[in-house]
Amino acid sequence: MSLALTQCDRVDTANRMSKDMTFTDARVTKHDYDFQDMSEHCLNGERMHEYLQEMRSAALDEFDREAILVGELPGTDPDTLKQYVLQDRRELSMTFDFDMMVSGSPAYLIESLM
After folding, report:
1. What is the pTM of this model?
2. Which residue, 55, 60, 70, 65, is CA-closest to 17?
3. Residue of 79, 21, 71, 74 lying closest to 46 (CA atoms)
4. Using CB atoms within 10 A of its CB, is residue 14 exposed (0-12), middle (13-18) or buried (19+)?
5. Which of 42, 6, 7, 12 is nearest to 24 (CA)?
6. Tell me, what's the pLDDT at 108?
7. By CB distance 3.0 to 4.6 Å, which of 11, 18, 78, 80 could disulfide with 48?
8. Could you confirm whether 12 is annotated as catalytic?
9. Average pLDDT for residues 83-98, to the nearest whole number?
10. Candidates 9, 37, 72, 97; catalytic one
11. Up-side HSE of residue 63: CA atoms within 13 Å toward CB?
12. Which of the following is catalytic: 12, 34, 62, 79?
């Protein structure tokens, strides 16, 4: 029996590479915090899919279909997640996020993580 090895790469915060290039400041929503949530300026940006397709083509196509590309996509709803893993788009093989870690946690704990 022979063992086939598969190349697997992970892309952290894969859905934050396409940013609003006006570099607009994030809205101040938490006055007690030094830093604010910038998600509205970079989460699942309009060129995100283009960038992932280019990355796969440039870095992984030499492995043909054996390469697996796993992307972390925090703050992304299930319908949007599906767009990243459609086979014909050749972007990500699978996705994950850490939203489940705070599921069922007290509100004060979740707030401290944000």
Report:
1. 0.70
2. 55
3. 21
4. buried
5. 42
6. 52
7. 18
8. yes
9. 87
10. 72
11. 15
12. 12
